[in-house]
């Protein structure tokens, strides 16, 4: 029966106590393919087929070299990519979905670019050369990639369905057996005295995979955050940043947030509804590359990062040769991002602002050191955000790490200060408890935390006017 089966369900009609209903593996509803098991691959492949048909119908127009390249690329995103992402707000994000979308996007854009292969050039080399050119053009023109647009679609759809009135069925469907419900049930199942084999259900089901990135980034009460359109709209860039990083394997860990906002006119504090933010667990060089990609801050005269790792400071400032084999590319990427920030007006040129990273003595870093030791004593890390004026000009970051035993229990801390209204204002301070490690690793983790907080500050997510 072409994948069909039958299912018997009870009926409310006494004359027909049992109804026989046909069941199919997939069903097209309003242009979207629904899978019986709740898997998004069926819908993704259906939209890829529809977008491919749309692409071949417009290929002659989009690949015509008489029109400017920018106009043709923008046209392809307004037509082909929009067809591809129809109904994508309900897809479950994953590395496989992101790979399918990215592969289709680059394949179409390479045809639009129309670069020919050089003599003795392999297909892989030609594709890499074309992809590099395309990414540079998209970055210069401010065009979001298909994966970024997919993440924004998921974020917008989540806010829309959670704000639906309680009398609509969709309001109850999106709240049926959520991840928070499953975790509460898991706690009950593990504590049951009759459960001698442990919790048997390792996964809540495919229907909750759509909620997984929202739950991981914004916490168990993320649905309450959607009630405010302004607050939810302000979190879209943070969601896109961390969702894409998670699909590419850049966020293997996370730390707990305990944030609050303090307004200068009052001593009242208000909690920010962000419970957990993923943290990248790579080197501080990779962190600077990730954080500086935010590009959402007013023009700053200076952004200075002070830390004790003198070697990395000299590497990024170009004063020393990079001796580690795997760090040359990362250092170059950081320098390229700094140059891009200058072109976009986020920070002024280096000739006016001086070095970005600066090595300072330990005596000048006592506040960050005290914050790290306090987190080590309490066994708990937190991040506090303060309201600062929007016209701040300078940003200074301090980070430090502490380890007792070397290796032993460790913690890290970071402090961000901004120059505004003729004085230094504390913009944020945070700490994080680490696994037992050495002092050097704790220093690197402190740099990681500082760059993560810098990304949030530049993206203007947590700053309240």
UniProtKB/TrEMBL annotation:
InterPro entries recorded for this chain?
Answer: RNaseH-like_sf, RNaseH_domain, RNaseH_sf
Q: Which Gene3D superfamilies match?
A: Ribonuclease H-like superfamily/Ribonuclease H (3.30.420.10)
Molecular function in Gene Ontology:
nucleic acid binding; RNA-DNA hybrid ribonuclease activity
What PROSITE patterns does the database record attribute to this sequence?
RNASE_H_1
Coiled-coil ranges (or none): none
The residues covered by the RNase H type-1 domain are 391-465
Protein name (record): RNase H type-1 domain-containing protein
């Amino acid at each position: 029966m072409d994948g069909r089966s039958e299912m018997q369900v009870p009926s409310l009609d006494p004359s027909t106590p049992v109804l026989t209903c046909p069941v199919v593996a997939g069903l097209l509803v309003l242009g979207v393919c629904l899978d019986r098991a709740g898997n998004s691959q069926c819908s993704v492949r259906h939209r890829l087929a529809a977008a491919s048909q749309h692409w071949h119908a417009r290929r002659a127009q989009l690949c015509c070299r008489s029109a400017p390249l920018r106009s043709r690329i923008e046209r392809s995103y307004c037509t082909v990519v929009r067809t591809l992402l129809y109904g994508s707000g309900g897809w479950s994000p994953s590395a496989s979905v992101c790979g399918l979308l990215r592969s289709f996007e680059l394949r179409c854009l390479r045809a639009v670019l129309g670069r020919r292969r050089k003599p003795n050039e392999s297909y892989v080399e030609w594709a890499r050369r074309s992809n590099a050119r395309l990414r540079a053009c998209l970055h210069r023109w401010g065009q979001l990639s298909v994966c970024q647009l997919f993440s924004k679609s998921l974020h917008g759809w989540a806010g829309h369905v959670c704000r639906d009135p309680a009398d609509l069925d969709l309001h109850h469907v999106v709240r049926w057996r959520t991840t928070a419900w499953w975790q509460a049930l898991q706690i009950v199942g593990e504590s049951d005295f009759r459960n001698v084999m442990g919790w048997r259900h390792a996964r809540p089901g495919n229907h909750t995979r759509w909620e997984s990135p929202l739950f991981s980034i914004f916490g168990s009460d993320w649905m309450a955050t959607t009630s405010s359109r302004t607050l939810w709209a302000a979190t879209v860039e943070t969601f896109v940043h961390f969702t894409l990083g998670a699909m590419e394997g850049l966020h293997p860990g996370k730390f707990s947030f305990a944030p609050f906002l303090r307004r200068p006119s009052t001593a009242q504090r208000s909690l920010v509804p962000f419970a957990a933010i993923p943290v990248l667990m790579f080197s501080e060089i990779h962190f600077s590359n990730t954080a500086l990609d935010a590009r959402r801050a007013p023009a700053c005269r200076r952004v200075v990062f002070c830390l004790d790792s003198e070697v990395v400071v000299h590497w990024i400032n170009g004063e020393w040769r990079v001796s580690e084999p795997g760090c040359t590319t990362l250092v170059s990427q950081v320098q390229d991002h700094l140059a891009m920030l200058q072109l976009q007006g986020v920070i002024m040129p280096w000739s006016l602002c001086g070095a970005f990273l600066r090595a300072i003595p330990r005596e000048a870093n006592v506040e960050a050191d005290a914050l790290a030791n306090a987190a080590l004593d309490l066994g708990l890390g937190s991040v506090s955000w303060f309201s600062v004026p929007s016209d701040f000009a300078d940003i200074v970051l301090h980070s430090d790490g502490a380890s007792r035993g070397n290796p032993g229990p460790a913690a890290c801390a970071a402090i961000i200060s901004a120059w505004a209204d003729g004085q230094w204002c504390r913009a944020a301070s945070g700490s994080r408890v680490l696994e037992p490690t050495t002092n050097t690793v704790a220093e690197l983790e402190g740099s990681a935390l500082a760059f993560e907080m810098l990304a949030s500050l530049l993206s203007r997510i947590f700053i309240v006017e």
